[in-house]
Design brief:
It is elongated and about 110 Å long. Helix content is 60%, strand content 5%. The protein is mostly helical. The protein is built from 39 helices and eight strands.
Length: 771
């Protein structure tokens, strides 16, 4: 289970074998089974199909898009969008680098989409992704604010190239819409951006068109003319007269898919003329032909292969051998392609294929009708095969499609941490949404994943507790798929980390988790972090140090950095409260290094690190820097409000704003904190802190010095000269002092005024009427 005080604060699973029965092997403590890199077909243009004529004038239209903000290829399914783009890539790739991303449903997760897109860009411009890839780990919220500005800067010196996103219509994501708009409008002109879509994208295409910044191909451009239809039929060895060709072209309205499918069907007809007269050319009519004529005409062995292989989105010899429990599938696929049975190559090596979507729909319906019991078994075998290949997403998708709840539950639980650490909460949410049948919503492991995701996406505590109750009520013995000792232990860890029942119950929950997790468990870090956090928020900073020090001493791998940063932040806070400023400085510095190294410096995870850094600035009488860090902590924790961490940052900010002489901002921060506290169960010491801050705000600031310390006569004389813009040497000469003495007076003045430089001192002196 991915758990933590904030998103991506997670520990390590202990060594164990999951219940999926795969040959994954054991997962050692401190390691994670990482999803593999994008498949070759994901980031490569498909091989142009044989028998499809190159339409040179369309390629010229595409080339004309260079120098414009966007090239849009928009038409319904089957008009040859992918084909013409693949032909363009084939024709021009020798002189212009192409980046190709084939979008799919999973790319609704903006972190996944941009990971793929940046990986493609790196192949033509190595500087792409140098900073933007790590920034993706902060999650979807970082894509627009951090990732895109970094990527646009990385592409500033990119060579002339073409970026194609095929099947854009599958990305139903406002974040993807907005970030692609940013890339189109702010990206380098050298990169021609091309979107292929069945529907108009949710982008300002009208404005771009009006300004001459849009190049586009539509269905009217892509539909085949009589002459092009004749060429297609001729290449398919179909002999029709001019009138029949014209009639067939008109009935399909130049629809390339309809004409292509008709050409295959015509080769089977004894009377092609009669076929053309009877052919309606619409979607429903084609389905009837495919179902009745095509499937009815192939041999039983080929038919069985087609039906059973239809569960796969992409077909290769190895995948089909494993899923269909047969051998010789690569030869069978080659034979099917030669027979023109609607098999489309998706790579340039002729190793991977997909069925034409219309044919795939027919096959899947026929399989469900004739052999429904086989569907689940095929999907489960596909899930196991893809898991063995390291393709976690395909493994999960097939487990869900086959309603294999045990496999789906184990896979989602085991790989949740990797997804969350990579900022891919959207993918996790999509999996859970698909796992929505009654048995899946009652599954204890999935209930714990749902609780964890609810906490990480700032859902109310009641929602988190609902899923914890579902998990606790189910019968599940033994460790979870990710190595947590038991359901009870995971419930306790989540409650202590997310404070769903308040601070005091969190202390008890953390202690129970430590009882349940054995010393060698990688999940003790979470329980120790939860205990240290709860004790600190209970006002027991000295007691909080022991569990935090123990957690800090545990070894950690790359995936544990967020949790380690959280431990260090709380250690620094505890040490500030106990007066150990040197240790606090050291731990805050290490926490910041970890966050920055893993792209999390601007994420929710960094909240407490910035609160601790503010405390260090306060100890050094740098109130301006203290307030800046607290403003950032408030902003980073705002998505989680109401929360203990947001309220804590607000209360500290209210005090800092008061000391800076900004009473309105101080009152606003205090009031916001009180709103949070009213919604929180058992806020611990935060209630008392709120009272202290309120008392501080009600007391007027003394004007003889920022902290009530009066400036001495000597300091006032030095201040008056500094305000007059005299240098240190000038002040020393005029007051008959050594320059080092003037510098000492200046440091004392800055401390008493709560400023860090001369300009701030001048402003503060004027505000306090000191000069």
């Amino acid at each position: 289970m991915t758990v933590g005080v904030a998103p991506r604060m997670i520990g390590a699973p202990e060594m164990r074998r999951t219940r999926t029965g795969s040959e994954r092997g054991d997962v050692p403590d401190g390691e994670t089974v990482e999803p593999r890199t994008p498949s070759r077909s994901k980031l490569a243009p498909p091989r142009p199909r044989n028998g499809i004529a190159v339409r040179g004038w369309l390629l010229d239209r595409l080339r004309e898009g260079r120098g414009r903000k966007l090239t849009l290829v928009c038409a319904p399914a089957g008009y040859g969008k992918t084909t013409v783009l693949a032909q363009w890539c084939e024709a021009d790739r020798g002189r212009t680098p192409f980046v190709w991303v084939s979008a799919d449903e999973g790319d609704e997760d903006p972190v996944r989409f941009w990971s793929h897109l940046i990986a493609g860009l790196q192949a033509v411009h190595p500087r792409a992704g140098t900073g933007s890839v790590e920034a993706l780990r902060a999650g979807p919220g970082s894509v627009e604010s951090t990732v895109l500005p970094l990527l646009i800067d990385e592409l500033s010196d990119a060579p002339p190239s073409v970026l194609v996103v095929d099947d854009w219509h599958l990305l139903r994501s406002t974040i993807c819409d907005e970030t692609v708009r940013m890339l189109v409008e702010q990206g380098p002109p050298a990169v021609q951006i091309v979107l292929s879509s069945r529907i108009d994208p949710n982008l300002p295409v009208g404005r771009w068109r009006a300004h001459g910044e849009l190049s586009e191909l539509r269905a009217a451009d892509l539909k085949l003319s009589h002459m092009e239809a004749a060429s297609l039929l001729h290449r398919a060895n179909v002999d029709l007269g001019p009138e029949d060709i014209a009639r067939l072209t008109e009935r399909t309205e130049g629809w390339a898919a309809g004409l292509s499918l008709a050409s295959i069907l015509l080769r089977r007809e004894e009377d092609p003329h009669a076929f053309v007269l009877d052919f309606a050319g619409d979607f429903r009519h084609l389905l009837e032909y495919l179902s009745e004529d095509v499937l009815g005409s192939v041999g039983q062995q080929t038919r069985e292969f087609l039906l059973r292989a239809s569960v796969l989105d992409e077909l290769s010899g190895a995948a089909c051998d494993a899923v269909l429990e047969t051998h010789g599938s690569a030869a069978m696929l080659a034979e099917i392609e030669r027979a023109n049975l609607f098999l489309v190559p998706v790579d340039r090596h002729g190793e991977t294929y997909r069925f034409h979507q219309l044919f795939a729909d027919v096959l899947q319906r026929e399989l469900a009708r004739t052999n429904p019991d086989a569907v689940g078994r095929l999907h489960s075998r596909a899930s196991a095969w893809f898991e063995a290949q390291g393709d976690v997403e395909a493994a999960v998708a097939h487990a869900i499609a086959g309603r294999d709840l045990t496999r789906a539950s184990d896979l989602v639980t085991l790989h949740q941490r990797s997804l969350v650490n990579d900022g891919r909460l959207t993918t996790l949410a999509r999996w859970l949404e698909k796992l929505s049948w009654p048995e899946a919503t009652a599954d204890p492991q999935l209930a714990l994943v749902r609780a964890s995701l609810a906490a990480q996406t700032a859902r109310p505590a009641d929602e988190i507790e609902h899923w914890l109750a579902v998990a606790a009520a189910a019968s599940h013995s033994g460790p979870l798929a990710n190595g947590i000792a038991s359901v009870e232990s995971c419930v306790a860890i989540l409650r202590c980390l997310y404070l769903t029942q308040g601070v005091s119950p969190a202390v008890a929950a953390a202690r129970r988790a430590l009882e349940l997790e054995p010393p060698g468990s990688g999940w003790r870090r979470q329980a120790l972090l939860g205990l240290g956090q709860a004790l600190y928020l209970q006002g027991e900073a000295s007691e909080a140090r022991a569990p935090l020090v123990e957690a800090h001493r545990l070894p950690y791998a790359r995936d544990h950095a967020p949790a380690a940063a959280g431990v260090l932040a709380y250690l620094a806070l505890a040490e500030l409260d106990t007066g150990d400023l040197a240790s606090a400085r050291r731990h805050v510095a290490t926490s910041r290094e970890l966050l920055e190294a893993h792209g999390l410096a601007q994420s929710y995870v960094a909240t407490n690190t910035h609160v601790a850094l503010a405390g260090i600035h306060a100890a050094g009488v740098d109130v301006n820097s203290e307030a800046e860090e607290l403003e950032l902590a408030v902003r980073l924790s705002a998505p989680s409000r109401p929360s203990h961490w947001h309220a804590h940052a607000l209360l500290r900010l209210a005090s800092a704003r008061h000391r800076l002489g900004d009473p309105d901002a101080a009152r606003d921060a205090l009031e916001s904190a009180r709103v949070d506290l009213e919604a929180l169960p058992d806020p611990g010491m935060l209630s008392a802190l709120a009272d202290e801050v309120a008392a501080e705000l009600s007391a007027p600031l003394r004007h003889e010095g920022f902290y009530g310390e009066p400036l001495s006569d000597a300091e006032l004389r030095v201040l008056s000269l500094l305000v007059a813009d005299r240098s240190v040497a000038d002040v020393a000469r005029e007051l008959y002092l050594a320059p080092t003495t003037v510098k000492t007076h200046r440091r004392t003045i800055y401390r008493k005024l709560g400023v860090t430089n001369r300009q701030e001192a001048i402003a503060r002196a004027a505000e306090l009427s000191l000069v």
